[in-house]
Each structure stands twice: as structure tokens, then as C-alpha cells.
Amino acid sequence: MSAASAQLNSTPTTAVTASEALPTAEQHGIKEHSDGRFGYVPVQTRSDRFKSVNVADFAAVTGREAVWKLSPVKKFADLTSGPLDGSVYPIDHTDVAGVRVDWVDRSDSRIGSAGAPEERASANAWSSFEQALSITISGEDAKEATVTRAALGSGARGAHTIIEAKPFSRAILILENTGEARLTENVEIILGESANLTVVSLQEWGDSAVHLTNHFATIGRDARLKHVVVTLGGSIVRVNPSVQLTGIGSDTELLGLYFADAGQHLEQQVFVNHVAPNTRSRVTYKGALQGQGARTVWIGDVLIGREAAGTDSYEQNRNLVLTEGTRADSIPNLEIETGDITGAGHASATGRFDDEQLFYLQSRGITEDEARRLVVRGFLSEIVQQIGSPLLEERLQAAVEAELTATEDN
């Protein structure tokens, strides 16, 4: 499915409480529906969604909300409405010059500078964390660092992370998640002028882990963010990146790879907001599904604002279905508020193996099982090969191979 809209008369408003989140007809120059006379006009522009860092400002989650309607909300009610453990937790990290990792108080001036929660689980984490994990990157030399979490436990937890790339800095940062957890968190990513940062969020959780995370990024003048989401493990994993291109000439590439097995729910809701002129974005997410009840959700929102002349944007999602009994939801959305752009587009596709590819490979003496493996490996390798870390790329290729072996065993 896909949807696109061009909206030329939208005036953003700032909401403070839940009651103020309902827009008026005058806000967008439209009228309420004549049937029913409920007096409600839905939010017309993606950036106008209600935001608050206070969980009490959000109504209880029912599953009928736009942000939750495709999620199994009953399975993580403790993360949306219950009390959370917001204390610090064990981490491991590589010792790399130019990368500082420490804990900071809630009063840190950077907190809240990249974004704010748009839904209750995110706000619950924001209201609950005691200290934020701070990762600060400096220096123009290229570097790579890994931060690992592996012992979060089975209790409901809230967390907050700040990633700041100083002006002109360059780095690859890998956020590695393993073990069991019930976690809702927010990650803020702040890029200074001409910074070049790759953030890889790697989810290799245990079989029963539940992880809800929102990544908020703001990109300065001529800075470039490559944001990569790789989800292979966990029972329910929902990673929602939101990127604001606020600096002239800023650039972002959002990549995603996911492999859903039987009973897994893997979800991504992506938002790219072109605010400044001459900005560029590319969004490419690819996933494979196998096993009864495997479910993936991808929603991609791109907004090209009134002042974003010269924007160049494209988003796409591709899903490969390997077995019966799976479901993939793929919904790209594009909003354009200016006609002065370089280009914009979106695409979505979900399907099974290409019979012609399989026939070609089998005609060259390759068995059907091996031909299927080659097709899937090639399909997902497009994402892996763009990460820029040879060791991580090799490791992820092996992980995908293990998933494919599990498919054959089943």
C-alpha cells in the first residue's frame, strides 16, 4: 500500500497537553465531516503530531491509535503504562580515542534537543530514566566504537541515550543489544556541522525480549548521518527512527534489515523531515519472513517542508516472503509542501521468490535449496554491504546464513 499527499496550507502548532493535541479545522483550512458531527479533524501533517515528555499527557493505549494499530499492545502493557526501572544498567564499550562514554544527569542541556515522544511508551521511558547514557564523538579522524548491553534482566525498564557528534567528527558507532529485556527507551542523535556519523542499532535479543525504542536525530549544516537498523532477535522489537534535516546541505541515509521468524513481531516506523533547503535523504529497508505468525511492519513518512527547496528524497521497502503463514505490512507516505524540489518518490513491494531467478540458477546445476539461499542472501546483502564496517558486515552475513539454515531445517 502507498499514500502520497501534497499539502500547501499547513500551519504547524505546538501542543502542550493531550487535550490541545486535537487540531482545529482552521489549522489546515479544512472542515470536519458532515456525518456524525463529532467535531474532530485528524492531524493532516506528520510533523503536527502531539508531543510531550510527560507520560501523563498521553491517554492509555488501546491499540486503536494510529501509532499502535499494527502493534500487539497487550503484550507490552507494562511498558506503556506500568512503572519502569530507570536506574543505570551495565554496559561494555570499546576504548577508542575520540569517543567518550559516561552517564549524565537529566539536567544535561542536550536532553530534548533532538526530539520528543509522540506516543506513550516513549514518554513513559522519558519520565522514568534517572541518568542518560552519553556517547560523545570528536575528532576528524575515522574511528569505530561499539557499546554493548547484555544484562538488562526481565523487569520493565526505561532508558535514555544521547549520541553527540561534534562538528567535523567522523565515526561508526555500533549499539549492540543481546540477552533478555523488557525495555522502552529514547535515543537522541545530534550531529554538528559537517559531522559524518554512522549509527548501527543491532538487535540480537533473546527469544522472549521486548524492545520499544524511538531514535530522534537532528542533523546540522552539511552533516551526514547513516542510520542502520538490523533486527534479527527478540519476540517484539519496534525501532522508530525520526530524523530532522535542519541544516542546509544536510544528508541522511536510513537503512534497515530484518529477518522475522515464527511468532516474531518486528516493526519500524520511519520519519524523515526535510526542514532546511538543499537536503537529501534515502530510505531503504529490506526484510525476510519465515514461519507461522512471523509479522513485520514498516511505515515510512517523509515530509518536505515549505522552506526545504532543492530537496532530494526517496524511500523504499522490500519484503521477501519465504514460507506460508507470514504477514508484512508496508506503508510509505510522502507529504510535499513546496514545488521547488529536485526529486521525491517512494516504493513498496512484498512477494515470494522470483521463479525466473530460481530457474536460472537451477539450470546451472545449483540445487533448489542452495538457489533459494543465494537469492535471499543477495536480497539482504544490499543493506549489509553499505554499513562500512568489514568485521560487522562479515558477522551479519553469517547471521543471515544461520537464519536461512534454520529455514531449511524447518
TrEMBL record:
<protein>
    <submittedName>
        <fullName>Fe-S cluster assembly protein SufD</fullName>
    </submittedName>
</protein>
<feature type="domain" description="SUF system FeS cluster assembly SufBD core">
    <location>
        <begin position="159"/>
        <end position="379"/>
    </location>
</feature>
<comment type="similarity">
    <text>Belongs to the iron-sulfur cluster assembly SufBD family.</text>
</comment>
<feature type="compositionally biased region" description="Polar residues">
    <location>
        <begin position="1"/>
        <end position="17"/>
    </location>
</feature>
<feature type="region of interest" description="Disordered">
    <location>
        <begin position="1"/>
        <end position="36"/>
    </location>
</feature>
<dbReference type="Pfam" id="PF01458">
    <property type="entry name" value="SUFBD_core"/>
</dbReference>
<dbReference type="InterPro" id="IPR000825">
    <property type="entry name" value="SUF_FeS_clus_asmbl_SufBD_core"/>
</dbReference>
<dbReference type="InterPro" id="IPR011542">
    <property type="entry name" value="SUF_FeS_clus_asmbl_SufD"/>
</dbReference>
<dbReference type="InterPro" id="IPR055346">
    <property type="entry name" value="Fe-S_cluster_assembly_SufBD"/>
</dbReference>
<dbReference type="InterPro" id="IPR037284">
    <property type="entry name" value="SUF_FeS_clus_asmbl_SufBD_sf"/>
</dbReference>
<dbReference type="GO" id="GO:0016226">
    <property type="term" value="P:iron-sulfur cluster assembly"/>
</dbReference>
